[in-house]
Specification:
Largest sheet: 4 strands, antiparallel
Distance between the termini: 12 Å
Strand content: 15-25%
Order of helices and strands: EHEEEEHEH
Number of strands: 6
Radius of gyration: 16 Å
Shape: elongated
């Protein structure tokens, strides 16, 4: 069974895995959501450019939805706010995936230390793609 990325805890790919995916010949698996315990960033193509952005929650909409759920006696969990996330600040951008990988390689990785141990082949995992 593929992992359901809509439920907590969310664990996105680590920096090493992202660099490997960006440098692949074929662009599959994009947009790519990043983060540790919750979605925190996204890599996507925008108008012919590849961009790494933070994800931000629209607080007003999420708070209103939470209050509405509680008013009906329904549960409201933190991951229910994820549907109110949208791309925010650009951390890096480039004309190609390979160039974006070069830019990301220079950055401190803000999305958790999610990489598996050296030698582990992530291609053997079912990512639900």
């Amino acid at each position: 069974m593929a992992y359901n990325r809509r439920m907590a805890p969310f664990v996105g790919p680590g920096k090493r895995a992202v660099l490997k995916r960006l440098r692949r010949l074929l662009a599959r698996g994009f947009p790519l959501t990043l983060g540790m315990y919750a979605p925190q960033g996204v890599i996507q193509e925008e108008n012919g450019r590849w961009v790494l952005r933070t994800l931000t929650v629209d607080r007003a909409r999420a708070d209103a939805a939470g209050k509405a759920a509680h008013a009906k006696g329904e549960p409201w969990m933190p991951e229910m706010e994820w549907r109110f996330m949208a791309p925010g600040e650009a951390l890096a951008e480039a004309k190609s995936r390979a160039a974006l990988a070069d830019e990301i390689e220079k950055l401190a990785w803000p999305f958790g230390d999610n990489d598996p141990p050296e030698g582990f082949d992530e291609d053997d995992l079912d990512e639900g793609e």
